[in-house]
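Thread: Newbie trying to understand structure tokens

Hi all, I'm a second-year student working on a class project, and my supervisor (Dr. K.) asked me to get a predicted structure for one chain before our next meeting. I've only ever worked with sequences, so writing a 3D structure as a token string is new to me. If someone could post the tokens and maybe explain what I'm looking at, I'd be very grateful. Here's the chain:
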Amino acid sequence: MTVTTPVTAPHGPSTGTGRRRAKRVDFESEAIRSLRDWKQETAETSHATPASWYTSPDVFELECRQLFATTWHIVGHADKLASPGDYFTVELLGLPIIVNRDRHGEVHAISNVCRHRAAPVTVGEGNSKFGFSCLYHGWSYNHDGTVRSCSGMDDAADFDVKDIQLPTYDVRVWEKWVFVAPAQGAPDFDEWIETTAFRAARYNMGELEFHGARRYVLPINWKLMNDANHESYHVPFVHPGLVSAYNVAGNFGVVSQDDLRGEDGVERGANMSPDVNGYTHMASDISGELLAMEPNPRGPFSKVIAALGGTADYRKIKPPLACLEGRDQLAHYFLFNWPGLSHFHFMPDGLGLILLVPIDHQNTEVYVEWWMPKVEKFDERLLQAALIVFGNQILDEDGAMTQLVQHGLESGAYDTGRLAPTEEGLLFAYNDWYIKQLQAGLKREEAVR
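---
Reply by user tm_fold:
Sure, no problem. This is what the structure looks like when written as tokens:
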């Protein structure tokens, strides 16, 4: 069953991969053995990743340490740090973290565990212009994690207050969001976000406003939702309303980075590109026909569209963002930053963001938010609402199907199956990257155990 919690205020994303305790990996489990022994394939010979990788706590623990810990996570909205002293707290991969802006405008991410006796240094969010004082015994810290005072320690032997420092984490602010990398080994942020930033530059992000969010938990392994987002093979069967409104079936394929963007920096007519770091960027194909890329919402909001003249007049009533030109007025772009926990959906009407928050090997939080320009006309506001309802309908269909797939994976009646080389070429490219990352991480862990 899907548990949904609507978010009506711009509180921002959840806390990233949430509260967890590091667990021991059984290196001789069936799932780990199959990962160790998996041989590299081609698209033409490719198989789906084994069922045990979606049901094994050992694989999930390895993913946490070798994939999630060494990437960038969206942890909140940048407007939470608008003024000096602003801060908010998050939990990322089990790490309590304070994200704050100091009196000089610098942004920091520091541990929220006091070096005295492990109490939280602060809770919630707010403004603290002079740093933080531990809630338990009053040890105080600057915004960058350096200590200010350790009350009661004047008589302690072999103790130097200058040796006390809260652990720090890499943090960046980009456009609407704050990103944190919880461990060493994350890619250079500018390189990691480069293609997403290239696309965002066309959308006048500063003019887009928060239009609501949704947070819900699915009883599935996180990879199932990620897998669904990496192929359109399922669209005619799972999303009948979408296939009647968008020319998407069979669109997603693999192309080179050079095909995506030329030497002049201009994007080409490409579907997807895995860049040199393995982080994926995919754009939907467009037919050149206006109606092929316009929403056709179901449910009560379909009547709104009809009352305003029908789908054929959608753009006459609500034109695309004024900043967009050419194919961008029609195209929808889905940009993934592998390992696939953040999905940016650039569309003629604004931006959708999907975050996958793995809770454990069989539960995943999905967080979705929408960014669109402010509009004054009532009919335009209705059309924006209709588009959000339509997007949520698509997510609900994926959620229902992935729960059925999770049940099949857990049944014992399935191990692996063949992938369709063309229709699931992007999924193969992702799986190939994923397997190489985990196999390399497994070798590192086995070398030191």
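A couple of things are worth pointing out once you decode it. The mean pLDDT is 82. The longest strand covers residues 208-218. Feel free to ask follow-ups in this thread.
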